[in-house]
Specification:
Helices cover about 50% and strands about 15% of the residues. It folds into 2 domains: about 40 residues; about 190 residues, 3-Layer(aba) Sandwich (Aminopeptidase), CATH 3.40.630. By secondary structure, the chain is α/β, with parallel strands linked by helices. The relative contact order is 0.16. A hairpin with a 2-residue loop joins strand 2 and strand 3. It starts with a helix and ends with a helix. It binds zinc ion.
Length: about 240
């Protein structure tokens, strides 16, 4: 009798526990449905680069080395940084369009002013690719070895270009910590910036004329860090 009462008591307890657990499960599911409706949060907030088309232009290439100091060529530095950046963007779901993936220029016609033709062909490629944004990578060089630091340039009459440049510059200051330079209007010498029909930013990744920065710019770790800053800027731009 005592055993029977005990069995009934245990059985009732088990049933009550089962009912309580079922109720709890329903409550959790209801809370989940209230808090996370499937279409309430667009995926773009979680993956801001997914589906974006980004053009990367590694400055110079082929016949045109760009700046050159102590055997370090601008065209090599710009390509390496751009390739690191491409990998990061692709990993994040973006579609990346590179104006060049190796040491080459974009000359087609063997006569006439080479630089102009090269830049016009880059612009034509970018325009035809229907990209969302353009980042052109360059490196500085001046007569004095004193100056250093990366700097981003934008087009004065394009708010998106300005916003992108400001965000990339913020990341260069915050993450790379090698500069207190400010994003600035690129005037006169940036053909792509001035003629691009899409928002664009020029990133001058540093000064090849500064011995320390020149050495850093040839190191894969530093090139990757540089690419990381531009990548973070792009994430913030699209977010
Ligand atoms: Zn350049």
């Amino acid at each position: 009798m005592a055993r029977c009462v005990l069995w009934i008591t245990q059985n009732l307890k088990r049933k009550a526990l089962g009912a309580a657990l079922l109720l709890l499960l329903h409550l959790v599911m209801a809370a989940a449905l209230i808090n996370f409706p499937s279409r309430a949060r667009p995926a773009v907030q979680l993956l801001p680069l997914a589906g974006r088309v980004i053009a990367l232009d590694p400055g110079h290439g082929g016949y045109d080395p760009g700046s050159k100091m102590e055997g370090v060529l601008e065209k090599d530095v710009t390509l390496e940084v751009s390739l690191w950046l491409r990998d990061m963007l692709v990993e994040a779901g973006a579609r990346v369009f590179l104006t060049r993936e190796k040491d080459q220029d974009l000359l087609v016609i063997p006569t006439g002013p080479k630089k102009k033709q090269d830049l016009e062909n880059r612009l034509q490629l970018i325009t035809g690719a229907r990209v969302d944004v353009l980042v052109s990578v360059h490196a500085n060089s001046i007569a004095s070895p004193r100056w250093y630091g990366a700097q981003t340039f934008y087009r004065e009459d394009c708010e998106d270009s300005r916003r992108l440049a400001l965000l990339v510059q913020e990341e260069l200051i915050r993450t790379l910590k090698n500069t207190d330079r400010k994003a600035s209007v690129g005037k006169g010498s940036y053909f792509l910036l001035e003629n691009s029909p899409i928002p664009a930013a020029i990133v001058e990744v540093g000064f090849l004329s500064n011995p320390r920065e020149r050495r850093l710019l040839t190191e894969p770790t530093y090139q990757k860090k540089m690419a990381w800053c531009i990548y973070l800027g792009l994430i913030r731009y699209f977010n």
